[in-house]
Amino acid sequence: MNHINLLNEFVDKFGEGGDIRGYFTPGRVNLIGEYTDFNGGYVFPCGLTMGTYMVARKRADRKLYMYSMNFEKKGVVQSSLDEFVNGLEKNWTMYPKGVMWAFEEKGYPLTYGYDFLVYGNIPNGSGLSSSASLEVLTGIMLKDMNGTKDIDSRNGIDNSDSNDDIHGISLQDIALIGQFAENKYVGVNCGIMDQFAVAMAKKDYAIFLDTNNLSYKYVPLKLGKYKIVIISSNKKRSLADSKYNERRSECEQALALLQTRKKVSCLCDLTVADFNEIQDVIADDILLARAKHVIYENERTKNAVTALEINDIVEFGKLMNESHRSLRDDFEVTGVELDLLVQEAQKCEGVVGSRMTGAGFGGCTVSIVRDDCIDAFIEQVGKTYEEEIGYSADFYVAGVGDGAHKIDIDGVNYVE
Ligand code: ADP
Ligand code: MG
Fold first, then answer.
1. Is the CATH number of domain 223-241+333-398 3.30.565.10?
2. Alpha carbon 254 to its chain's center
3. Is there a binding annotation on residue 131?
4. Where in the chain is the site Transition state stabilizer (predicted)?
5. How confident is the model at residue 238 (pLDDT cuts 50, 70, 90)?
């Protein structure tokens, strides 16, 4: 993509004038803690510098005019705040409309519609949460357009004296509203990690999040001479169609059995030691393997954070490798493309760890690679992948960026 000026693009589509504002929300990559989020466990994502941009202007009526530069052919999609068709839309606009619907459902009625333009540089459908990015982006736009104060609670700004209900919504609330929209409007049964991560991310930190109670801490990503390299397999996965819901149901079945032996509310309430003591209650090998992945992965995630805190990158990498093995053999959500990318990555010089990230069945891997080995890594893994799979993978040396925020669009913000 060449350099683009978002304001010019907006004016080109919707005309000049009025109060035009800009917003950004990143994508995210989960470093470790996969399939723990709907089991009440830990996850460890960070925000990316890749993300989704929105330029918006409030209208005087209830209409919505929506344009995505990533879906040029769809042109400007027209709708209104009175046309929510929950669960039936199959257009990119179901994400922003779902969030508007969710605002209303949660008791924040919207009065006016919007003209808005969207542009994103996160590969779609690759497990880097472009959908959550678009949802949270819509949420911060709605909040900002319906209030007068700074949206950014990370700056410690107190919004409590506002009379406007929407104005009192926090970034965490927006994350929850985004998840609600994705669950109920879009129809994808995702956990809270994605929306939370893209809302709350912080430059050069990862978020150690307990999905059970949303307590979290920022952990500095001090990788020294190493970088995070994301590889998109370019094998498309669709979360709604995938085995994601099947895995959820298997986890629920395993939990119900374990609950007959121990009083817990989710799989991740169990430690590895607890699990080993009572696992014989699960007779079915598949359910047993699913539960084992979740409980061990939760423990690995805690250990990975400790490893990072004491600068033990090698240990962090080992835990990533073990995470992949477990996702492949016990949880069975990888597939030939992801397995090949990880296997080849792990063979390369300067790689401390590599694993699939996101929901699996395609999408991306994440690897920790030493600076001076990155070129050779890309060359070697890229070549083998193309030879064996028949199409190429895309490589991104990840920048770790801030969560959802307002941007200045007065002609100075160019996006590559
Ligand atoms: P992921 O969240 O892993 O990227 P999903 O399938 O959950 O994959 O979400 C991808 C969908 O989100 C796209 O097909 C599109 O409908 C929507 N989307 C994401 N980014 C944009 C964008 N920049 N413009 C319009 N729609 C987008
Ligand atoms: Mg998604």
1. no
2. 26
3. yes
4. 28
5. low
